[in-house]
């Protein structure tokens, strides 16, 4: 079996970090909007691009009003700075691809001055390669800019990691500025980086690999849920890399330990770990997750507390 090799390490590179913003909850299970606003601001202050209505923001569990409230608030808070948002539609296995709903979601995001991230759906991913490519070509005509998204089924059941042929076609769409790659596999991401370097060097390969956040060393940028645990420290880490500061490695190692703990099976419960961690850091009023989301046990808390202590010297 021939293994894919990594490309060269790209030192002193300015990393583009996009962070999937956690939607915080209050004791009565309503959204804690002031805490959400503060987390969007914290993300921007760290130098990261907020990514709202993503999986970390429970987009698949939100009603229309809540999803639009997230967009309205983010539009106001970002005040013209870049943000991205998930264009999500809910369907079932066997569903037809529904372009109209995607376009409606993209229009809502663009009306808020955001850049759509095209979530996958059964209708999109159950098509042939040709059908998938055609769908993105048609969507690209309906917006100024967009970001693609390949998601492993460990995150959501309708996800699909595309063939490299489909990936190449995405890069051929000039207003597709990048694509988030969430296979949790380094080799598949290295293949995408090699293709990107050959075909379109300005295209962002946005790692979604919370288990290998050092993929930025090989030229990936990122759109992560893990960075929502501590946007400030991801900002510090990224600046260390740009400055050639070797403290990058030590900080990256601790953040990766947090990533392995937070994204352990069942992976979808990473959002509760995020709330627990932010609460321990005094950045949220509660450590509650969405009422319908998977939970972590309270026995995780002492482990997270120890990680907060390990990270303290970098704050
Ligand atoms: N894919 C997740 C983030 C996990 O890294 C998201 O969409 O929020």
Automatic annotation (TrEMBL):
Keywords: Lyase. The keyword Metal-binding does not apply. GO terms for molecular function: lyase activity. This is Dihydrodipicolinate synthase family protein. It comes from Fuerstiella marisgermanici.
């Amino acid at each position: 079996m021939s293994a894919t090799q990594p490309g060269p390490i790209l030192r002193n590179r300015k990393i583009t970090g996009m962070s999937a913003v956690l939607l915080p909850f209050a004791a009565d299970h309503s959204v804690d909007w002031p805490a959400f606003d503060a987390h969007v601001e914290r993300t921007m202050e760290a130098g990261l691009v907020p990514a709202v209505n993503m999986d970390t923001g429970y987009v698949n569990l939100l009603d229309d009003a809540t999803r639009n409230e997230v967009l309205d608030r983010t539009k106001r808070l970002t005040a013209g700075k870049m943000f991205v948002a998930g264009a999500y539609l809910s369907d079932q296995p066997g569903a037809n691809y529904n372009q109209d709903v995607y376009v409606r979601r993209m229009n809502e995001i663009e009306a808020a001055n955001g850049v759509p991230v095209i979530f996958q759906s059964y209708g999109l991913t159950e098509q042939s390669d040709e059908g998938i490519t055609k769908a993105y070509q048609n969507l690209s005509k309906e917006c100024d800019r967009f970001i693609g998204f390949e998601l492993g089924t460990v995150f959501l059941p309708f996800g699909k990691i595309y063939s490299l042929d489909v990936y190449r076609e995405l890069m051929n769409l000039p207003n597709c500025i990048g694509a988030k790659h969430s296979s949790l596999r380094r080799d598949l991401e290295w293949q995408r980086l090699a293709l990107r370097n050959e075909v379109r060097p300005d295209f962002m390969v946005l790692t979604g690999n919370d288990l290998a956040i050092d993929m930025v060393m090989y030229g990936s940028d990122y759109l992560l849920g893990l960075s929502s645990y501590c946007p400030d420290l991801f900002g510090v880490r990224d600046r260390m890399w740009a400055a050639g500061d070797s403290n990058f490695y030590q900080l990256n190692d601790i953040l990766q330990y947090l990533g392995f703990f937070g994204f352990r099976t069942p992976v979808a419960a990473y959002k509760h770990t995020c709330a627990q961690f932010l609460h321990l850091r005094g950045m949220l009023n509660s450590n509650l997750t969405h009422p319908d989301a998977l939970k972590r046990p309270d026995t995780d808390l002492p482990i997270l507390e120890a990680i907060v202590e390990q990270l303290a010297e970098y704050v």
